[in-house]
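We include the pair:
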Amino acid sequence: MTINQIIENNIVKGLNELFGAEATGNQVALQKTKKEFEGDFTFVVFPWLRVSKKSPQITAQLLGDYLVQHTPEISSYNVIQGFLNLVVDNTYFTQFLCHNCQNIEFGFPEQTAPKNIVIEYSSPNTNKPLHLGHIRNNLLGWSVAEILKANHHHVTKVNLVNDRGIHICKSMLAWKKWGNGETPESAGMKGDHLIGKYYVMFDQAYKKELEQLQQSGMTNEEAIAHSSLMNEAHRMLQMWEEGDVETRHLWEKLNSWTYQGFSATYQRLGIDFDDTLYESKTYLLGKQLVETGLEKSVFYRKEDGSVWADLTADGLDEKLLLRSDGTSVYMTQDLGTAVMRHDKYHADMMIYVVGNEQEYHFDVLKLVLKKLGYEWANSIYHLSYGMVELPCGKMKSREGTVVDADDLMEEMYETAYKMGCSLSKLDTMKADEATCLCNMVGLAALKYFILKVDPKKKMLFVPEESVDFNGNTGPFIQYTHARIQSLLRKAENQKIEIKKVEHCAMLDKERDILKLLHQCPEVVQQAAENMSPAVIANYLYDVAKEFNQFYQDIPILRETDVEKISFRLQISLFTACVLKKGMALLGIQVPDRM
């Protein structure tokens, strides 16, 4: 039982015994005491004045006296108007440290009702390489999955590859027209980069064609309708859906190149999946569901043969489900994917990590599924996140103005290497050790900079700021962990044994860091509830910052009292464990030497 639960339970008893309040645990909640006041937890008594029939000051004093008498963990209290500020006894924190310093389960909150959760992230298109936007998606999805697992949920990480559709046909058509048999090997390029080149090539040729048609006197709409390139792409999609052998063979070949490229990117980024689904396998089920909806008059067919869902009565609009030529759209395949996924994993919750520009899409998806009779549609959760922007503005894949994921990771490595050299941190390392460390630091800089921002907010990525050893960055936290490991090695070299100390006079700085470490399970739980790795990232920064102040202000190995040395080494060891475990939930490794 946590200290919060102990205090809350005794508050309930106190309210009942003192005032006959008939209170329950659900009605009692503690707050962290504000920094300007003395105390660790604060209880607001105003809602209970109706039962105490006394002033806020007297109500709080009576309850404070009761808690000090009945709760050994509370040493004192003070009252500010109707706010009861409670001070936890130092002995609680020393025993907390002693019992949890080497507890591998510490930090993982209790979970009484674990769920089967499926979380989809990445979801790349096979017509282009992964870019900075994909990096935020992947890092967010992977980290949220790990955080949910730390809260004891059963989590399945899935990737849905967008391997079919008009956008795929654009790069296929461009390669067929202008590729001259080029392969990743002959071009000296990763497969996904090669396919992305032809996607951009299609867009450039398409724009040029539209410009020529408009110069001949056509309106923009007329030019689009008469575009031979776009009509060829649509014809290719139709042939693909009809199972044309040549089209399917070309599709398989080009996609295989892309998958090889994706695999290398995922591996370097440290991203994995439990299962991978392909839209080419799910869209047919989606088309069947649309046919079922037609039979039930849930959907309707227009004169041109296209199929629609009329959602105007529900506050939305009409949604296209099948084009007039019978080919499917994103919504069609998402319907099929959702049903397949729910049935396969018996999911209590299905999380989709997708940018916030798709919020309407998921409103429609849930509503259409409900109209088809799937009540579990309410279990769909859109983990919406803001776009990543650069100082130069937004990225556009089809125009080739993206920050490539592979290039960015390489740039982060090089930045870490240059900084390591300038700070003389690599001087004593072998070449392979230096390479490993710079990769670790570069990825930490990238991952932490992205994950420390709340998912709902759009963010500006500035690579130079992410590799700062003194700011709110991944490398700063890594350096703090390495500093602790160096301290522990020095203690070992001096034959200092770290013994458990259950009773020790405590300084304010020692108490401050222990209070912060004590919050770890609560933070991990809050991160899961909010589905926000930022909660953990910023907590870890606070821990690292607090430890460095503790390290600067209080002697550890220079202390003469053996018991105090052990106590402070325990704090250091425990801090390192919390930093390492917390960073692991963000997908970040922490080195023992820097």
